[in-house]
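ARCHIVE CARD
CATEGORY: sequence design from structure
SOURCE FIELD: tokenized fold
FIELD CONTENT:
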């Protein structure tokens, strides 16, 4: 059943007594649309109503920062801002209460008519409790302007909640197409709303080096810019010529990175940097050709490169000196536990003919270039671990032998994660089958250009980081899951948002909520309410899940029927045949029988009007 905005629902349910704030408000379970779905939620009678006299009670600066996330929203939408205080009034307050019995990231939210208590044992738990409280409020709380005639009520509930997995992430590729700092901050806001806690920044690839390194200024002076061929398909862009001027690109200064990391910390998010090696590094080689085997000048490519043969030379000591210096500066900027080093898709043709690499193979008694990559990654892992960090890499780092302290990010499927966990290594599951958000999410003819594969919303919702064939011990090594948004075909921030949302919403529930509690119909009902928040927040989310599809079925008697549908179970679909007008459309209730050439025109209806794209 479709639920209506809480603010509208309340109009017929409020009984006021002059200026007294006491009101009798009734909520039903259908009015509660928290995503990800809480572990336990009990609805009670009554509601708490925020007003200009409401006080947020905190202990310390950190709790004050969390409270400010919501109090500033009231200042914008209501014209008043609740006070943040340290003493508890007699009523009409929201209080943060330390509870050491709760596990990390867990929270308890108790809403009564005269007070709200958020309990947690630390920063993230308090933050998640506040985010759930935010989602209990009318969607208008997300508006950028003053909202009139809104009752800022939340239902009396008790929520006990905690995440299923420790790693709940999104990878943002800012190398193939550079996105400004302001957009990264907006992405962080979206992650926090969904209780995600990792932003993985893909800062280095062939097509651009995006982070300032003081010791090697050419990395950004040269490596951050390429010849502008944005008017051409990514994989049809010719190799740039030395006479052409590189103008397309950009990079994050050290101050930008510090701001991003600090902002993310306030939202409970760890920013994990990725500095690719030994492949996907033509931007670095363009700046410092001596890093490659041949030492020949190259330009930053303007588009796709395959195979990737211009890679770091594994035989030169100067390569490792360079990488250690770079990573030292990176670790100074990023306090994250994990440092991602890529490790994928290296074509080792140059290593096979390089005298430096062959000498290394002989001196280290390696079997060949595959084991040379293992040597490369093990050496980098040893350096990273010496700095008190954990090396993270794509599942190709398994090839030739895995470094002892490494964590694996399994992308080519589940096998890499299965093997790494079987060997006793921690893993983050991010298989292409469910977690690649650069893939199409609807019919190609109705979607912007994307990578030629298909990952619709319902497919993301089926994702589970733990593989059924894993042992209990293996499952214990699964840190969680992550979505990846590669940006070859994503040149703008608006397009990026379109690819992230609402698939991120589905993924957020798969890595937070218990598997047995997930239900597609229930989720889509709550998602419709989340769309209203996206509208207020100015998020360019995709409506692809509403796209009507038509499938023909033929029975044994050669009778043909047409089945219409969308990803949403209870979509109001209406249709007309041949030259009919949608204003006179009939409701779709089941397969449509056709016995001759017939044109079917169909649309999703909302409030008795056709909306979205018609079939």
């Amino acid at each position: 059943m479709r639920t209506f905005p809480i603010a509208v629902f309340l109009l017929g349910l409020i009984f006021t007594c002059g200026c007294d704030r006491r009101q009798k408000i009734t909520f039903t379970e259908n009015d509660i649309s928290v995503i990800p779905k809480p572990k336990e939620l009990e609805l009670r009678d009554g509601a708490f109503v925020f007003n200009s006299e409401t006080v947020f009670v905190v202990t310390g600066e950190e709790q004050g920062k969390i409270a400010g996330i919501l109090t500033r929203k009231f200042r914008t939408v209501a014209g008043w801002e609740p006070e943040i205080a340290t003493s508890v009034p007699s009523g009409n307050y929201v209080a943060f209460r330390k509870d050491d019995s709760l596990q990390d990231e867990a929270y308890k939210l108790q809403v009564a008519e005269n007070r709200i208590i958020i309990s947690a044992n630390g920063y993230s738990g308090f933050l998640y409790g506040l985010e759930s409280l935010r989602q209990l409020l009318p969607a208008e709380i997300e508006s950028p302007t003053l909202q009139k005639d809104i009752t800022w009520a939340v239902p009396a509930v008790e929520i006990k909640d905690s995440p299923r997995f420790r790693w709940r992430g999104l990878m943002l590729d800012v190398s193939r197409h550079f996105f400004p700092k302001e957009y990264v901050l907006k992405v962080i806001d979206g992650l926090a709303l969904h209780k995600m806690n990792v932003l993985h920044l893909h800062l280095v690839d062939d097509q651009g080096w995006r982070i300032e390194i003081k010791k090697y200024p050419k990395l950004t002076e040269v490596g951050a810019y390429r010849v502008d061929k944005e008017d051409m398909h990514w994989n049809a862009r010719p190799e740039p010529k030395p006479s052409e001027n590189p103008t397309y690109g950009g990079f994050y200064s050290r101050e930008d990175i510090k701001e991003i990391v600090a902002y993310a910390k306030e939202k409970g998010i760890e920013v994990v940097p990725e500095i690719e090696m030994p492949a996907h590094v033509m931007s670095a080689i363009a700046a410092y050709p001596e890093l490659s085997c041949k030492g020949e000048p190259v330009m930053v490519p303007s588009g796709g490169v395959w195979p990737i043969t211009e890679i770091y030379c594994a035989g030169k000591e100067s390569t490792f000196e360079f990488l250690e210096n770079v990573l030292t500066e990176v670790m100074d900027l990023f306090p994250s536990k994990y440092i991602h080093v890529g490790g994928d898709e290296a074509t080792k043709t140059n290593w096979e003919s390089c005298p430096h690499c062959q000498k290394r193979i002989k001196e280290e008694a390696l079997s060949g270039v595959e084991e040379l990559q293992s040597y490369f990654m093990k050496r980098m892992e040893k350096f990273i671990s010496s700095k008190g960090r954990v090396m993270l890499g794509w599942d190709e780092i398994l090839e030739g032998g895995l470094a002892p302290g490494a964590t694996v990010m399994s992308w080519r499927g589940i096998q890499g994660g299965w093997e790494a966990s079987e060997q006793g290594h921690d893993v983050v599951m991010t298989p292409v089958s469910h977690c690649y958000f650069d893939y199409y999410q609807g019919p190609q003819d109705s979607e912007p250009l994307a990578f030629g594969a298909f990952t619709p919303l319902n497919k993301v919702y089926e994702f589970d980081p733990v593989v059924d064939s894993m042992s209990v011990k293996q499952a214990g090594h699964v840190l969680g899951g992550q979505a990846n948004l590669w940006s070859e075909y994503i040149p703008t921030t608006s397009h990026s948002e379109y690819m992230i949302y609402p698939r991120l919403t589905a993924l957020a529930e798969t890595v937070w909520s218990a598997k047995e509690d997930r239900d597609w119909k229930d989720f889509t009902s709550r998602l419709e309410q989340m769309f209203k928040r996206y509208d207020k927040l100015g998020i360019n989310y995709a409506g692809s899940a509403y796209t009507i599809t038509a499938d023909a079925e033929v029975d044994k008697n050669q009778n043909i029927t047409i089945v219409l549908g969308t990803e949403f179970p209870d979509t109001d679909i209406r249709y007309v045949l041949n030259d009919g007008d949608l204003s006179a459309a009939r409701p779709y209730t089941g397969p449509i029988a056709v016995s001759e050439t017939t044109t079917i025109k169909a649309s999703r209806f909302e409030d008795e009007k056709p909306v979205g794209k018609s079939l």
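CARD ANNOTATION: The chain is about 30% helix and 20% strand. Confidence is low (pLDDT under 50) at residues 1-22.
SHELF: design records, drawer C
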